[in-house]
Amino acid sequence: MTEAGEGIDWGTAEAMAFGSLMLEGNHVRLTGQDVQRGTFSHRHAVVKDQNTEEEYTPLNHIAKRMDPSAPMEELRRSDTQAGLIVRNSILSEFAVLGFELGYSLENPNALVLWEAQFGDFANTAQVIFDQFISSAEGKWNVMNDLVVLLPHGYEGQGPEHSSARMERFLTLAAENNMQIANCTTPANFFHLLRRQLHRPFRKPLIVFTPKSLLRHPRCVSSVNELTSGGFKEIIDDETADPKKVNKVVYCNGKLFYDLLAEKEKLNNDRIALVRIEQLYPFPVEQVKKVNARYSLAKTFIWAQEEPANMGAWNFVHDLLGTHFPVKLVARPASGSPATGSGKFHVIRHQKILDKVMGECNCPYLETSCEMVCIGNKWKQFEKELKDMHVDHVDSKFHSAVKPLT
């Protein structure tokens, strides 16, 4: 893929970010459960001999290893590289994250990352986030650049494998105390990681990383996108014609590709899909410029996979609601981050796409949707379908005028 200059996937872009920083003299350290190969087998940073159990780390052999005790100007010679440490850790997120936070404080010129096996697993390290990562600068005037990677996305894997709880991190965000991002392209992730060390200051970085997008055929970048430009806080819809667009949809993460596929299937040229890549600090001025470009648009939507009381909605609405009327399309508010039924998940996900695209048979089509027509009770949902002798339904089977009980 590098010879062709196209098709750079997520794992390759990450390796390129690590390697390029190491060639510039910056050490890289990554820990977490199963990080050597990656939970979803996208990384393979460490290769092991099955017979001898000997480990080989390819990125440690790009150039000659430098002497860590040498002065910085010598460390950044073009014929040497810094080292990469990738270690699988125990299932004790609180302890491991706390250690990596301390490591990043002691070595501000290293890229230090902790990755949760699933983003939900950050729950057991919440004390570290609350007491140290989000508040250390405010309490002790201490800055750090720890990177936290949290796999996030609704693929029907259930309540404990879907949500990294971005609403919690956005609640902790204030006074530019940290950065929160949800990238949709490998190139943007590449630039985000490199930006972490090239900025003249240090801030923690929370990244909601993908699962299904790791191998999505459209979630790829070109070499040119990596070698030029920089991190994009917002990505406008390059295919949209402002003279035709009457609805602007803001979204982030995996949902963008689902909406894009639906838009192309319906050949809908009246909708612009705009990606918010950085959730905090939120790019309000850039959003206002995008809105100005679509001067004929009458409807503005925030679409998310998460339930209405979770995800970025409440945070986004507080910021944008004073500038223009923005409506919500999301799953209904819930006490659980996701449903326990795969069938229920698929139908509700399609309902989000239908509502955004204007395909939902609902009298409240141009208003906010929290999917009250189907609710959260998946067991009752399946029983009702059984009592009705219905084997299959799509999202148009129910609406606000024909809700399921």
Could you list some keywords that capture this structure?
2 domains; Rossmann fold; 405 residues; 16 strands; 17% strand; single chain
How would you describe the overall organization of this protein?
With 405 residues, the protein is of the alpha/beta class. The protein folds into 2 domains: 10-227, Rossmann fold (3-Layer(aba) Sandwich); 235-397, Rossmann fold (3-Layer(aba) Sandwich). 31% of the residues lie in helices and 17% in strands. The protein is built from 13 helices and 16 strands. It has helices at residues 10-23, 72-75, 93-106, 126-133, 136-140, 166-172, 186-198, 223-227, 255-266, 284-293, 313-320, 342-357, 378-387, and strands at 28-32, 47-48, 55-56, 64-65, 80-81, 84-88, 111-115, 147-151, 179-181, 205-209, 234-235, 247-251, 271-276, 278-280, 299-307, 326-331. The strands form 4 sheets. A 7-stranded mixed beta sheet has the order 6-1-7-8-10-9-14. A 5-stranded mixed beta sheet has the order 11-13-12-15-16, sandwiched between helices. The chain has a two-stranded antiparallel sheet with strand order 2-3. Helix 1 packs parallel to helix 7 and helix 3 packs parallel to helix 4 (126-133). The protein is globular, with a radius of gyration of 22 Å.
